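Hi C.,

You asked whether I'd gotten around to modeling the 119-residue construct. I have! Everything is below, sequence then structure, no commentary in between.
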Amino acid sequence: MFNHMVEESSAGLDRVFGALSDSTRRAMLRRLAGGTRTVSELAEPFAMSFAAAAKHVKVLEQAGLLSRTIEGRSHRCRIEAGPLEAADRWLATYERFWSMRLDDLERALTRDAARRSRK
């Protein structure tokens, strides 16, 4: 049971980080943070076709980072925070690790500077 949950969680994080690996998709998410947008509105700042934008939207949707509703011919997208929160929790583990490492480095540099000033 636990292994299955870890695999599902890992697969979800893989999709999230895969989706976030593209600068266009990150920019689309930033725009969605300001409110819902149509696929055409998401494509607007980029020199891309509707079809290309729709492919990016599909990747974000499959990662759970956005939801899409269809109103006639208009596809409206909105950001979904849950997968970003899971990614943030995963990254927080490493933030604590690097904070401790940087604190160790600061202490070592301070000791080294104090030794040099005594000489």
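If it helps when you're writing up: Residues 82-118 form the longest helix (37 residues).

Thanks,
B.
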